[in-house]
């Protein structure tokens, strides 16, 4: 059996672990058998070394072994960012998820409270009136009634509470930030994932490809864990078990160039107000970013053939209609009602 000295010594020396070793380490963490120092050392050393596909697969396998299962019929979609980009932007993926649901995709969003930003998905959704402390049966019911639901990571991966102290005191993004999108308990067939960590998006896409998931994993060249409007982005598309890299310039889609300042958010109350205004039709840089990311989510959900820019453009047309025709705002209203 592996030991903490063996695992940590290998990581500090820059050696890759195998799937069994990382699964063992995560199993120790989830069982409450690891100390906060061991957890912090493991998380930081693995992130500093740079994860491999086998290492992340081991972590995800251990998480799924202990997760509360969730069954939601039909093709489902997750839209989420890893966080950790230190941009303190508004909740673009949250708005994009609501817009995608308004356009007809069944969205099962997996997330948590913020670990390194001012307002995470859970914090903002609560301000909007969405109830999050629901048992699994009600999470599935809300998906059927509202077209969108939220899997609170604390409820479905309760054993992760053992890592909470170490993560909270570190207050930086680590390998744990990669795991949320990869361990959605509903196992969505389509995923649009923003990843802030340079080098990690192709790794995440490879994990999705191994599982046969249709996924776009993207990173703005400004470091944003979204498709950015301030510059170009790169997209790693997992499809049919393979990963293909694309480069995207939003200007080619007619999206105006944005600025980091225009996308910056505030606390949960401020960001919730931004959500309401965008869904009500307010135009500007935030709407542009939401349409771009919701368009990507709808494109990966549709799984159509053709050049990626064409598929993304089609998704953006649907996202625009979702907002302008009131479907996105109505979806949020249904979500609040169903979760209550």
TrEMBL record:
Annotated Glycosyl transferase family domain residues: 75-328
Protein name: Anthranilate phosphoribosyltransferase
Glycosyl transferase family 3 N-terminal domain boundaries: 6-67
Upper classification of the organism: Bacteria, Bacillati, Actinomycetota, Actinomycetes, Propionibacteriales
NCBIfam families: trpD (TIGR01245)
Keywords: Amino-acid biosynthesis, Aromatic amino acid biosynthesis, Glycosyltransferase, Magnesium, Metal-binding, Transferase, Tryptophan biosynthesis
Cofactor(s) the protein needs: Mg(2+)
Record carries keyword Transferase: yes
Residues that, per the record, bind Mg(2+) 1: 93, 226
Binding-site residues, anthranilate 2: 167
């Amino acid at each position: 059996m592996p030991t903490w000295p063996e695992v940590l010594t290998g990581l500090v020396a820059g050696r890759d672990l195998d799937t069994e070793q990382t699964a063992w380490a995560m199993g120790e963490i989830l069982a409450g058998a690891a100390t906060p120092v061991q957890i912090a050392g493991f998380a930081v050393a693995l992130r500093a070394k740079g994860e491999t596909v086998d290492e992340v697969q081991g972590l995800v396998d251990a998480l799924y072994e202990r997760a509360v299962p969730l069954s939601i019929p039909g093709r489902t979609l997750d839209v989420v960012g890893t966080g950790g980009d230190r941009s303190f932007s508004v909740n673009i993926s949250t708005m994009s998820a609501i817009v995608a649901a308004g356009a007809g995709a069944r969205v099962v969003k997996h997330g948590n409270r913020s670990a390194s930003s001012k307002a995470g998905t859970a914090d903002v959704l609560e301000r909007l009136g969405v109830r999050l402390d629901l048992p699994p049966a009600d999470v599935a019911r809300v998906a059927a009634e509202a077209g969108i639901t939220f899997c609170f990571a604390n409820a479905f991966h309760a054993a992760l509470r053992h890592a909470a102290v170490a993560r909270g005191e570190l207050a930086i993004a680590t390998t744990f930030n990669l795991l949320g999108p990869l361990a959605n308990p509903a196992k969505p067939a389509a995923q649009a994932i923003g990843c802030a960590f340079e080098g990690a998006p192709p790794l995440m896409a490879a994990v999705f490809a191994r599982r046969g998931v249709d996924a776009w994993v993207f990173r703005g060249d400004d470091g944003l864990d979204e498709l950015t409007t301030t510059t170009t982005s790169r997209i790693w598309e997992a499809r049919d078990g393979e990963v293909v890299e694309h480069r995207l310039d939003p200007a080619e889609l007619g999206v105006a160039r944005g600025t980091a300042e225009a996308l910056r958010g505030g606390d949960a109350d401020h960001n919730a107000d931004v959500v309401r205004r965008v869904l009500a039709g307010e135009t500007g840089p935030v709407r542009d970013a939401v349409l771009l990311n919701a368009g990507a989510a709808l494109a990966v959900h549709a799984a159509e053939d053709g050049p990626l820019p064409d598929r993304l453009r089609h998704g953006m047309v649907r996202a625009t209609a979702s907002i302008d025709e009131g479907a996105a705002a109505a979806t949020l209203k249904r979500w609040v009602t169903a979760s209550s």
